[in-house]
Design goal:
This protein has two domains: 2-46; 80-190. It has helices at 2-9, 16-36, 63-66, 96-107, 116-124, 154-158; strands at 39-40, 45-46, 80-83, 112-113, 133-134, 141-145, 148-152, 165-171, 175-180, 188-190. Strands 5, 6, 7, 8 and 9 form a five-stranded mixed sheet that branches. It has a three-stranded antiparallel sheet with strand order 3-10-4. Strands 1-2 form a two-stranded antiparallel ribbon. With 191 residues, the protein is an alpha+beta fold. It is built from six helices and ten strands; from the N terminus they run H-H-E-E-H-E-H-E-H-E-E-E-H-E-E-E.
């Protein structure tokens, strides 16, 4: 486009050869300026830019220590701490996501109802012993059975006790599974 503009607006003394040379000098100048200014062209940001990241309260690890790829640093990531001993509760009796959080916090200080990604991270961190219980996903999925569609919808955000709604549970033998919201389960808790 620059070359085309130069051709249209240039005087007759600019030949194709001189236009190409001018274009090359222009591009070369931009690259030299970028390098001299410290712009890292391969990453798209200035080398003096700082990337800010806030760690959870109480964490004192550097970003390099956390994300070096060799260690997930499980001491600061959310982990499974247990399953409630109260209850069990059907999907509606959990009392919503906040009710699940409160049930966990009442038994394990600072904990909340686990999400699916926290369970997976716990497994990566070496926790392999889980008890059966409800956990939240925030995802709706469906499958067809006998001509009807059924939905796994976190028991309608853990507000439904209907046998036609389903929620996610961790099964001791099979891992992630589903259960009708009319069934009673404990709540899985993570910190």
């Amino acid at each position: 486009m620059v070359k085309q503009y130069l051709k249209m607006s240039a005087s007759p003394w600019l030949t194709k050869k001189s236009t190409n040379l001018l274009f090359f000098v222009l591009i070369f100048g931009v690259i030299v300026y970028a390098i001299a200014s410290g712009i890292d062209l391969s990453k798209g940001y200035h080398t003096s830019d700082q990337i800010n990241f806030q760690l959870p309260s109480g964490a004192s690890k550097s970003l390099q220590e956390i994300f070096d790829g060799s260690n997930p640093h499980c001491d600061i990531l959310p982990n499974y701490v247990g399953t409630t001993s109260g209850g069990p509760w059907n999907g509606g009796e959990v009392g919503g996501y906040s009710g699940g959080d409160a049930k966990c916090a009442g038994e394990f200080t600072g904990s909340h109802m686990c999400s699916s990604d926290e369970i997976l991270r716990s497994m990566i961190c070496g926790i392999s012993s889980f008890s059966t219980g409800w956990y939240k996903t925030g995802v709706i999925s469906k499958w067809k059975s006998g001509g009807n569609f059924n939905y796994i919808n976190d028991c309608s955000m853990f507000g439904s006790s209907s046998g036609s709604d389903y929620g996610n549970v961790w099964d001791i033998s099979n891992g992630p599974s589903k259960a009708q919201c009319s069934t009673s389960k404990q709540v899985m808790c993570c910190t």
